[in-house]
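Q: What would this complex look like in 3D?
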Amino acid sequence: MTVLLESKEIKKCVQLNEQLIPVIEDAFKNLAVGKTIMPPILRLDVHKYNGETDVKTAYIEGLDSYAIKVASGFFNNPKLGIPSSNGMMILLDSKTGVIKSLLLDKGYLTDVRTAIAGSIAAKYLSNQDSTKAGIIGAGLQAKLQLEALKLVRPIDKAFIWSRDRDKLNHFEEETKYLDLKIEKCSSIEELITKSEIVVTTTPSKSPLIKNEWLKKGLHITAMGSDAEEKNEIDPEILKNCDIYIPDSQSQTAVLGELHHAIQAKVISPNEHFNELGDIILNPDLGRKSKDDITICDLTGTGVQDTAIARFTFDIAMRKKLGTKI
Amino acid sequence: MTVLLESKEIKKCVQLNEQLIPVIEDAFKNLAVGKTIMPPILRLDVHKYNGETDVKTAYIEGLDSYAIKVASGFFNNPKLGIPSSNGMMILLDSKTGVIKSLLLDKGYLTDVRTAIAGSIAAKYLSNQDSTKAGIIGAGLQAKLQLEALKLVRPIDKAFIWSRDRDKLNHFEEETKYLDLKIEKCSSIEELITKSEIVVTTTPSKSPLIKNEWLKKGLHITAMGSDAEEKNEIDPEILKNCDIYIPDSQSQTAVLGELHHAIQAKVISPNEHFNELGDIILNPDLGRKSKDDITICDLTGTGVQDTAIARFTFDIAMRKKLGTKI
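A: Here is my prediction, written as structure tokens for the whole assembly.
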């Protein structure tokens, strides 16, 4: 028997809140201790329509189910009046491969688990008293990352920069519910100067943050790059920061900021970095002083998908939601 | 809007018959002419439960949809009284990435498109007057491959060998509907001696067919190997046959019989082979004489999945089947 969960039902089960932090932390911990089988991402590009579909999965040892996630981004869609993002998750039984559930979330769970990874990065790497967030980009993930930061840090002001003036102008109105002071910046340099925590949320293909803008105590979470050609921060930053943490080094070396630092030969392909899960297991591996410059490189992992799909399914079963097919 | 198609509905749309041959031939043709984006297979192993999940996909240029297929094989399932195979296909819109259909076929469409690839291999590579088929293995695909051969060749007798005596004993009864003489063989050598077309359908990890058993005019379709460790025919056979044809050389070099021939250094990794699609486009590239020994190496391709998912969806729409969600 398979349980079909539609988007509306999924949103009744899962919201962006503190409850999800330990769920996603557990996923990263399992990844760090090697209790996970996480194959490389399958990626299909449909260049003609400016589209891509990614498939991610991870089996976490000892758990009775695992997810396969299909996520599409078709970037001409907004012109057609439909969202760029789309997708679903499939939850399979670990013992039999039987499909337990189809989660037709249209990308919602990906949005949420990505934002939660941002809050985890800030929780372990940024200064605890940070009140000023800088968000580069003004799309959906920009809003969610800001909301997620508020779960772990006493943010009271956000600085925003976006190439898209229209989105930038709507940002303040769309984030009213966060009860924050929002200030639009005219340059990224200005944003960096004013912020303590910076999150990059763009599909940029050339660095937005320059090495010379780095300042003591800054934490940057780069979550926009999830493909070979994407690049948000100057490769030199990875060498000059005090701590660089990937979500999964095997992924960031191919898809993330690390990829570009290796290509630019500022980082050796043989260098080993602690991953986000290592820091969660041993927070002493994280920020050591108020002045440290810290970078977290997020490409999005299958373990996060398995974790949030399982969490959603459990709540849906308790709430008796879904259609049996 | 997404259309949910359940197994029962799918079986009303698609059966193993001649109608599917041009559908799957077209898929191979598109693959051969490079009009396809087909990323490497994503594979997740759940060793603890003797299980594996594969994800395959392919976008064929110019078509308005493409499929992502999730297929699991959990080989302890029969002990639990449930089938080993499981899975589903997701049909996405090529322009937007929107999910058009969920095909909950539980592996049925994979079984059918795999058998049809076997009939296409025999159509282009075996002698036209072949009446004697040899089937190694006695599982579901053994039966379907035999049925598929009958679509293209005047088969009147089948020789069967299987390690599993129990399955072997049931084979005749289970294939009564094919109206064939069935003869159980006590060895693979005997089966090869008596057959004109041989199909291997096992998950064997060491060669079943020895080089010294080859005989003039023989055609072998090796369809069991779809993973690094699987191997059904002696690597020497790939060197000594007259024509070796992979479904996709990039896949057989990693997952198929070619993989083992390269590892055994009997074939150079740089050697180029015509693929099944090349032979369909130009049958002169296939069998040249009655005495040729021909081999077809099938690992299963994403283009076949996209082709059969699209075909099923079109028929379902015409028959007004499915549930809108």
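A: To summarize the key features: Chain B has a mean pLDDT of 96. Residues 118-300 of chain B form a domain with the Rossmann fold fold (CATH 3.40.50.720).
Q: Very helpful, thank you.
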